[in-house]
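Entry 12.
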Amino acid sequence: MTQVSPSLLSADFANLGRDVEMLNESRASMIHIDVMDGVFVPNISFGFPVLKSIQPLARKPLDVHLMIVDPGRFVNQVRDIGAEIMNVHYEACTHLHRTVQQIKAAGMKAAVTLNPATPVCLLEDIVTEVDMVLLMSVNPGFGGQKFISGTLDKVRRLRDLIARSGSAATIEVDGGVNLETGRQLVEAGADILVAGNYVFGAADQKAAIAGLADL
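Predicted 3D structure (tokens):
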């Protein structure tokens, strides 16, 4: 069974409470939250006041993905809004090992994200320290983009690196995920699928989540 982490970036921002409750009642394993600063990525989403209002409603773990510069500054804020996973970009961290250690010291699981052009081999010296690696299968910043097919080989390379290193990290993929690309990703070795438009644009959102979970 595949874990599904629906992205609130595609939810109805005027009815976030309703959409969070739908996720609570669905087969989603966690809730993916994309925090964007308009600097690291060309978009702004939502910040900690919004997340603080979501947290009491959520009965699924919060998977917080920081698409921001210098994310290590916000470890305590992410912890304080109840996140189980704090996800930072390799490209945004000058001292990635230090940031990973800070996340763990704060009691959260540490995850590292790679942009499409960032090779898996750059994780060789950190993969045993992280709980999850997120591969972007679109360029980060906007929902609704087309899946980058080269991500499938990237998942295979990451799966090989994890096996060779003895890491316990899971593999999450974000961008252009639907039933077709989701099936290909799971076959390549992905553990967790992030889906935004595919879930929240569906007539039956819970059924869309269930379909991905059954892959």
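Annotation: The chain has a mean pLDDT of 96. The first helix runs from residue 16 to 25.
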